[in-house]
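Title: Prediction job returns without error message
Component: structure pipeline
Severity: low
Priority: P3
Assignee: unassigned

Description:
Job completed but the reporter wants confirmation the result is attached to the right record. Sequence as submitted:
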Amino acid sequence: MLQPQPNAEAHRDPAEGAKNEPAAHSLPPLARQSPPRNVVCVHGLTRNGRDFDMVATRLVKAGAYRVFCIDLIGRGRSDYLQPESTATYDYPLYVFHLKQFLVHQRVGIAAGPARC
């Protein structure tokens, strides 16, 4: 069974200057496809990225997918906001961190509804 690997690099919000790091784990594709298709799993407000372990493993086994399971800031293995931070846990902060993560991982961003 594939085990998720922690993402070794932290993603910081430069505007905050504090240690605000979302965490992620990813599963690389089994088959070689250039480039692999990316799947990004983002949990609900009170959950964490480990909720997607089963579906991530199945997607990787099904084909050439690279799956990212995100822990939003303050959830799962991600950092909490620093006490001196002026940021709040809200959707603009989550979206900012997700965009930074996706750009860093070189994952293309396509708008559209999520399908389960």
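Comment from assignee: result matches the submitted record. The chain has one domain: 5-104.
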